[in-house]
Amino acid sequence: MSEFESVTTRGALSREEERRERAVLVGVERPGLAWPLASSLAELERLVDTAGADVVATTTQRLDAPNPRTFVGSGKAEEVAELVRAHAADLVVFDDELTPSQQSNLEKAVGRDVKVIDRTALILDIFALHATSKEGRLQVRLAQNQYLLPRLRGMWAHLASNRMGGGVGSRFGEGESQLEVDRRMVRKRITTIKRELAHLAEVRAVQREGRYASGMFKVALAGYTNAGKSSLLNRLTQADVLAYDKLFATLDSTTRKFELPEGREITLTDTVGFIQKLPTTLVEAFKSTLDEVTGADLILHVIDASSAEREAQRTAVEDVLEQIGAHETPRVEVFNKADLLDEDEARALSVRFPNAQVVSAATGQGMDGLVERIAQAASERDERLEVLVPYRRGDLVSLAHERCRILEESHEEDGTRITMLAGPAYAALFGDFVV
Prior knowledge:
With about 425 residues, the chain is an alpha/beta fold. The chain has helices at about 15-20, 35-50, 75-85, 100-110, 120-130, 135-150, 150-160, 185-215, 230-235, 280-285, 285-295, 310-325, 345-350, 365-380, 395-405, 425, and strands at about 10, 20-30, 55-60, 90-95, 115-120, 215-225, 255-260, 265-270, 300-305, 330-335, 355-360, 385-390, 405-410, 415-420.
């Protein structure tokens, strides 16, 4: 078993920054990793920053397999403890998920006053920070409790102790006076949260069924976190959805109506961003939100064209789509942030992915082509109809203009003659008036 190490330190922090927690990152390179370790750690640093801490040191190790006691080797664990002392760190973050026993042993090695968390706990902490709706907060609490349940003995004590006081890794069960240490109580809480989520899911399902029953074409935006989904939704619909250059800036799905150039109305839904090593507890907890993806007629897979890891991010999203059963839904790949590419890079991207759309939500570049592509997808199942609608059925004429594609229209003695392309749900409504 060979080993290498790379320790990176940061310069002195300003007074304002000193109020933030100080973190040491730990990464392990193993055979067959999908992402280069440096890229994974760079993303982990962004996650730490999003959670409200500063990285003061990073250390890595190459291992054939994780150490069952401390994940890293015993020598590396001691080195981590030395880095913590040297940089007055409050927090150690591992890039991989730790077992409860590994976490407990590492806490003993680095000192009880220092929190040791893994990538999963960090992501859950960020979700707790950004969840705004009642459903979003419940989904995060469910995922947190499911994550913490097997860690009651190794992790619960320091989460419940007064010295935690807040900060990264401490937003578990935010708003509660303390966390119960009894497994039965935790399971009871999980059951209660699931019951509340089931009720909210029923409400969401009624809203969703209303859209489904209307026959309206449904488009869902899916993609890696910070790929620009919210910005794309804002550009298309002139919405005011929160769009920050931060990981997981938005968690709650947002649906907006959008009118295609032909006059037909469709819906566009922005969904929670994905990430590599996305905790399975989160996928399960956010199932009702992700149903917006599985129930869509078309998925726009939004990819950050400017990211050095766009291929790995693209694969990570495809894996999650398959995990939630949306891999067979028709989709269009949308390479966003084209304004950050030079002309040669943008041209090469278009050549390599001829069926994709290269756009910029920031500048509007390529948006006309994207809208045309959506319109084509919306029309694929359409049936060509020629109908004569009596004047007393003005509601059907309005429906044709809102939800169908009008090819010709004329007003005759007996009613309005329309030649149109209509989806299956709408074509049935005009059955009695087909010429």
